[in-house]
Write a structure and sequence with these properties.
This protein is of the alpha/beta class. It contains 7 helices and 11 strands. It is elongated.
């Protein structure tokens, strides 16, 4: 049996921690440290739910395991060097990792990306899949380089349902078993020294963060477009968005239906109706120059 790898893992929550730990341990490898990505950028402000997520992640950790909260790429490099790791696994971490970090593990770094690369490269692949109304999504495990999601593919699978009422919980129920299987396959390939298959760059699309204007509904858009906009914000658990003006008042729209339903009926830009089935009073969006 090959020598077990010493693995560090950078993740964004307890569901990911549990799945990756099981895949590594069942393959005979040793996760030696877990790191929670508490900000969207190196040196950036903490995510709004960083404290809550870090606390819940502690409950998913094995006894005696370290949980580290790096604030910058330089600090991340120092932390990883101290653990003498063979492999870094990343899942749900938005930072662009510099060469100073990628060169630390003996076998490099691999990333779990929730799309069928090269489609939806970037920090928000699942949000764009929901926004675009994709019925299913994929998962890819790939080697990491200094660009976003451009490294060689080790394993991938399509066909994960993106339900109309998608939440992180129901998505994980379908996606995490796939992540487990793909990680097991990828770990075997890493140990064997397999480089993975190059991506087809000409087929790449990019999935960046949602733009500021996405927080407001435009009734001139198609009904399906608006419905998926609402789905995306509900998945994000946006506390105040998206907002829409209806009959002279502003609403925070929480749920819509493309089929006749009890609620407010609005005719959209494509001539098709949409029903607002859940909403609360909202505020008009701020102009860009007024935003804090």
């Amino acid at each position: 049996m090959p020598t077990p790898l010493r693995i560090a893992v950078i993740l964004s929550g307890p569901a990911e921690f549990s799945t990756v730990h099981a895949a590594c341990s069942d393959a005979g490898h040793h996760p030696v440290a877990y790191l929670y990505g508490r900000s969207l950028r190196s040196g950036g402000r903490n995510l709004a739910d960083a404290g809550e997520t870090a606390a819940s992640t502690v409950g998913a950790l094995p006894r005696g395991m370290d949980l580290l909260l790096p604030g910058s790429a330089d600090g991340l490099a120092l932390l990883l060097e101290s653990y003498r790791i063979d492999l870094l696994i990343v899942f749900g971490f938005a930072w662009r990792l510099p060469r100073s970090v990628l060169d630390i593990p003996r076998h490099g770094a691999i990333n779990v990306h929730v799309s069928m690369l090269p489609q939806y490269r970037g920090p928000a692949p699942l949000l764009w899949a929901i926004r675009n109304g994709d019925p299913t999504g994929g998962v890819t495990v790939h080697r990491m380089d200094e660009d976003f999601d451009t490294g060689n593919i080790l394993a991938q699978r399509d066909g994960i349902p993106l339900a109309d009422g998608i939440t992180w919980a129901n998505y994980c129920a379908d996606a995490m078993p796939v992540v487990y299987d793909l990680l097991r396959e990828s770990l075997d390939r890493v140990v064997a020294g397999h480089p993975g298959e190059p991506q087809e760059g000409a087929e790449a699309t990019y999935a960046g963060f949602m733009e500021e204007g996405f927080a407001a509904i435009r009734w001139s858009d198609a009904a399906r477009t608006i419905h998926d906009q609402v789905r995306t914000h509900r998945f994000l658990r946006s506390p105040h968005h998206p907002v829409a003006e209806v009959d002279g008042r502003w609403l925070h729209v929480r749920r819509t239906s493309l089929e006749p339903a009890e609620g407010i009926r609005v005719v959209c830009g494509d001539g098709k109706p949409l029903w607002i089935t859940e909403s609360v009073p909202g505020r008009p969006p701020q102009a860009p120059e007024e935003a804090p």
